[in-house]
Amino acid sequence: MTHLGLVTVVVRDYDEAIAFYRDAVGFDLLEDTHVDDDKRWVVVAPPGAKETAVLLAKAATDEQATRVGDQTAGRVGWFLNTEAFERDYERMRAAGVVFEEEPRREPYGTVAVFRDLYGNRWDLIQLDTPRAR
């Protein structure tokens, strides 16, 4: 069996990114290994995630720095699935996560778009059917 192991989010600073994803979004810090003086291997994931996690990669060049906060050209690039939308939405809001909208119902479930600390757009989503997952 194969699966998607990591997706990358380019960040400005490791520690501020860890703080946001751990403390505001509620992810677990799975790994923070120093590779050299300025590079670390930093992996975060939702609690209980079994397959896909997020690699927080510090921009190392000027070109990479231009992508921080706009990796997907303004589109939603990541989808955080939950089985308790209201609980997670309220916890994240209380922790300072900025949502662009109030939760809305779609044919596939309940969703609200939020931005990470750099401006990347994410969906917090609770799907209605297993097929939609």
From TrEMBL:
SUPFAM superfamilies: Glyoxalase/Bleomycin resistance protein/Dihydroxybiphenyl dioxygenase. Pfam families: Glyoxalase (PF00903). Transmembrane segments: none annotated. Residues 3-127 form the VOC domain. InterPro entries: Glyas_Bleomycin-R_OHBP_Dase, Glyas_Fos-R_dOase_dom, VOC_core. This is VOC family protein. It comes from Streptomyces hesseae.
